[in-house]
Amino acid sequence: MFRIFLSKIRPPIPMRSLTYLFLLVLPLGLLGCGGSSASDDGAPASYVPPGEKDDYYLFYSGGHSGQVFVAGLPSLREIQEIPVFTPSPGHGYGFSKKSKKMMGEYRWGDVHHPGLSKTDGTYDGRWLFVNDNANNRVARISLRDFKTKQILGPIPNSMGNHGSSFVTPNTEYLLVATRFSVPLPKGTHAPVETYEENFNGIVSGVDIDPETGEMEVGWQVKTPPFNWDLGSTGKGPSDGWAFWTSYNTEMAHDSLEINASQRDRDYAAFVNWERAEEVVENNEGLNRRNGVPLIDPAEHEGVMYFVPVSKSPHGIDASPSGRWIAASGKLQPTTTVFDFKQFKTAIENEDFQGEFRGVPVVNYDAVVEGEVPVGQGPLHTQFDGEGNAYTSLFIESSVTKWKLPPWDKETTEDMSKAVTDKISVHYNIGHLVIPGSDTKEPYGNWLVAMNKLQKGRGLNVGPEKPETSQLIDISGEEMEMIEEDYTRPEPHFAQAVPADVINPIEVYKKENNDHPDARWDPENTGVERTGPDEVTVHMIAKRSQYYPDKVEVQQGDKVTFHLTNIEQVSDMIHGFGIAQYNMNGVVPPGDTQTFTITADEAGVYPFYCTNFCSALHQEMQGYLEVKPR
Ligand code: RUQ
Ligand code: CUA
């Protein structure tokens, strides 16, 4: 109760420190612990004593591990892994029929940007969406049970789903853009030397069903062959819009390190997704490519505009008010702030400095509010809801805090005055996250820096070092480094949300189990021959017994197990490992899962519960008898 209270009113740090100081003094005194104390370095602010809960959930993308990791904030303790694109025997993911089907042919994904669902511009705690950069997919995780529910893709015509997944203020769409350009429709061949003429990028609008969260690709907008990078969705005055930055407006197809860093400015794309939706609804003479309506922005006015932006940018973020749009050029030490209101005026007045392949290029000076000298290698920007922005600096290994407009005269004359603080993060930082930064009301308080490239600060584990996160207290004027922790490979971005916004279930209730082969009574279980080479097993798991615990089949049979865990007690999970059959099911209480093996090896193979469930867990076993043909 008390902690929820804490997260709600966002206390200034002294109050927090006092609370924890009080909680800390006693145990530290008793243990004579030599660790961090409730003193100068502020360590207590992240200390969550045993039995206490964190204030926030932190959802890390797991990069090329293909997974999502859940941690608590402020402790940074990892709580859970949510397998998405990669099998995870610990959760039985990739072993059940359902999860196998969802993963399809792929055994990995490259998760970069988690996006929480929103209602009226704030997190509603329903779903978490993530992208797969490698195989052009997006996935939906339900925050009721922290399980992956849908994997959509590969998205047609899309190659390198990196600029994703950005959720609109009422979860109408997941907006995604391609990192790589290819000849369209996907599957067409053209030599890379013809890149400029024959290759294209794509922005896709993935429709989300407001009730079920089911995703489907609604429409796509064709773009020149730029590489699209990070984006964000508009809100308030910019609701209905989405923004991405591009690099490689040079349209180079080789040696991008040099060839894509020639021009002084690249483009940001301002995409009016409401207009795109209208074009599709009115069916304004659209082509379909691989079944998806494809909008050419040169033919459909108002769908897309380009805005010049500092060299080789790596992201663009809309402020909580939706008026200020901040983009950083990683090869220029500035973050550019655009005024969306001026942008609207500019497009009304056709204040363009030209066009690129039929897409108007808005006059830079007409829309820029200022260039903030944040420092070297700026990447991503987050907001605290108090009028401040925080930009990660990869090259400087720092975070810069700066003031959003409106700026006073002194500041507009000397933009360095907009910078109010800078903190070193000890590593090359990539993304950073503030709870609720992409909502209309960020929760502020904390900033988590997601760092790259180890610097010998931890125990040496060989040539491959873990990634690190650092926790920074942003509740005061000056940022304060609080805590450092290791993560799995490899967080790119994260989302953080107050714990009380999420309301997970404790068990799958028996009455909600709609699996057609669920069984609840040992009497109704059994082994049945359902075809010449097919056996179906209806099985129950409960402490500490399988019903049946002997399954007799013929060599070569396809054996399908429908396993129901009939427990209705939270965390009473039963596993289902079959020796030498490459099988490990994990069935949470109240769930039914289906597993299939081909019994191609004759002999006797024990199956056993892999999840510690009771004092007699070790006794929870059975035999698969495979009779030779
Ligand atoms: S990326 S470190 Cu989001 Cu894939 Cu910027
Ligand atoms: Cu059931 Cu261990």
UniProtKB/TrEMBL annotation:
It is found in: Periplasm. The keyword Metal-binding applies. It comes from the Bacteria. Pfam families: Cupredoxin_1, nos_propeller. Its EC number is 1.7.2.4. InterPro entries: CcO_II-like_C, Cupredoxin, EfeO_Cupredoxin, N2O_reductase_N, N2OR_C, Nitrous_oxide_Rdtase_Sec-dep, Nos_propeller, NosZ/Cyto_c_oxidase_sub2. Keywords: Copper, Metal-binding, Oxidoreductase, Periplasm. GO terms for cellular component: membrane; periplasmic space. The keyword Nucleotide-binding does not apply. Residues 532-629 form the Cytochrome oxidase subunit II copper A binding domain. This is Nitrous oxide reductase. It comes from Salinibacter ruber (strain DSM 13855 / M31).
